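Hi W., the L4RZE5RM complex you wanted:
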Amino acid sequence: MKDDAYAIDRDRLQECARQIADAGRELGARGWTPATSSNFSMRLDADHAAVTISGRDKGRLGIDDIMVVDLAGRPIGTDARPSAETALHTQVYRRFAQAGAVLHTHSRTQTVASRLYAGAGAIRFEGWELQKAISGYTTHESVLDLPVFPNTQDMAELVDRVDAWLDAGRPLHGYLIDGHGIYTWGRDMGETKRHLEAFEFLLACELDLLQLRGKQA
Ligand SMILES: CSCCC(=O)C(=O)COP(=O)(O)O
Ligand SMILES: [Zn+2]
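Structure:
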């Protein structure tokens, strides 16, 4: 055990691990976490998060598949390897003081949409009632942009792209990574799941429209 490990609230960690495992089971059952893909996290306190261990089956998580990192992504109290994409989770907690959970999944809809809209750099949702499922959106008469960032194995590069979007003052509630999947977050696990479901639904609607109209993105 490293010293910092003693500062973690064990009850909070247990509760977050339970919520992460429950979310994984739910999302895995929907087919959104194929082949060990996806990763999940929850904020533990101002300086730490609970995150899934790399390579685990995210649809069958137990308490032991979740570990603690600090907001620089360093493991706390364990030699386990955190998600390969931990930097994207800790970035959310650093940039959004209110963020309490982050979900990353690889559904077919998310992945296909990411490829179709990569050239455009973003998908713009307009006129959909379900935009109101994203916190802060109160009407379908709004514009909701979901950026698509190029995929890379270099997490620092992705972190820079997300920082650049935010530093330009653009609202951000989630993003796609080309050929990869989606990231979204919220105040707690409930809000984060709602955001994920809303983006999945909105993406599916846009893909349906394209298909029905026989158009390119
Ligand atoms: C087999 S999926 C490739 C890695 C990935 O995109 C993912 O979401 C899971 O990575 P982790 O290290 O979090 O297991
Ligand atoms: Zn992934």
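The helical segments are 10-29, 86-95, 108-117, 155-167, 189-213.

W.
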